[in-house]
Amino acid sequence: MADTSDTRTPAQIEADIRRRREMLAETLDEIGVRVHPKTIVGDAKARVVSNIDHTLGRAYVGVNKVVTDVKAQFVDEEGAPRLERVVPVALVFVGVVGLLALGTRRRKG
Q1: Of 14-23, 57-66, 71-80, which gets the smallest average pLDDT?
Q2: How far apart are CA 70 and CA 55, in angstroms?
Q3: In the prediction, which pLDDT does 106 show?
Q4: Nearest 5°: phi and psi at 10?
Q5: What is the spatial distance between Cα 109 and Cα 105, in angstroms, rounded to a whole number?
Q6: First and final C-alpha spacing in the chain
Q7: What are the backbone angles phi and psi of residue 9, rounded to the nearest 5°?
Q8: Please, which residues bridge with residue 75 across strands?
């Protein structure tokens, strides 16, 4: 059988009890901070902001890729416009704007 007798002095036992009380008080303070409503709300806000930042970052990368791909359709490697693609798109755009203007005029008149 193991010897379970305590060889500490009463002063050592009191010091140990005091030290353990201090550790317990620190632990309780930490728990109190963690479960405080402001801490919980702050943590939730931080998670939401992080998720939004992540989503916006992914959206930015996606949009940037689309813009780059579209730009590559209308500009060559040297940065000069590809007239064989720009002119037809410009004509379609002018035509649509003209039709819209015509439609608006007819409604007013």
Answers
A1: 71-80
A2: 22
A3: 75
A4: -60, -35
A5: 6
A6: 109
A7: -80, 165
A8: 81
Task: Tell me which of 15 and 3 has the higher pLDDT.
Answer: 15
Which token pair is 38? 């402001």
Evaluate whether 8 touches 16 at the Cβ level (below 8 Å).
yes
pLDDT at 56: 95
> What whole-number distance in Å separates Cα of residue 63 and Cα of residue 69?
10
The two tokens of residue 51 are 């998720």
* Number of residues assigned to the chain: 109
Residue 53 has pLDDT above 70, yes or no: yes
Tokens coding 77: 């490697």
- Tell me if 74 sits within 8 A of 81, measured CB to CB: yes
pTM for the predicted model, two decimal places: 0.46
Residue 74 burial (CB count, 10 A): 13
d(CA 63, CA 68): 8
Q: Is the pLDDT of residue 1 over 70?
A: no
Q: Could you identify the residue written with the tokens 């579209």?
A: 70
**CB of 83 closer than 8 Å to CB of 73:** no
